[in-house]
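Researcher: Structure for this, please.
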Amino acid sequence: MQLSIVSTNDVAVIASTITITELVRNQSEDAIFIISPATNSYVLTNQLGNVYYLPPYYGSHVDETYNPWPKSVFAGETNEWTIRLKISEDVKPGDYQLIGVRSIMAETNHIYVSPGVIRVSGTVSITTERKPVYTLISNSLKVKVVK
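Model: Predicted structure, token format:
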């Protein structure tokens, strides 16, 4: 499995958003499920040791395809989607590296169901037993943060 992030813009303005495209390539023989991004899924760091977490931004006029359920990537496929990240006013101007850290679940005989409802097509056994979650870390992007 491989996680990559790309952006057409390497400059981010404080108190605004930056849009990245996230690509997940599944080179395994099983489907994987990308868990929805958390507030700590995108990390901005610099050489001074400053660390900022950029939360996904789902404000008005945002990608209408956002879905809180895990995204599936089947064996041999590459899927991509865009995500807007919020640059908070706490971020100081400067040169940074941005990485994505995403959690995935591998296909098994069961799908873990957190509280709520899930629709499944085909024959799948559903359980409340928690299955292993793995972490994918992306390449890093250079980002210049300005006021």
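Researcher: Any notable elements?
Model: The two ends are 36 Å apart (CA to CA). Confidence is low (pLDDT under 50) at residues 61-65, 109-128.
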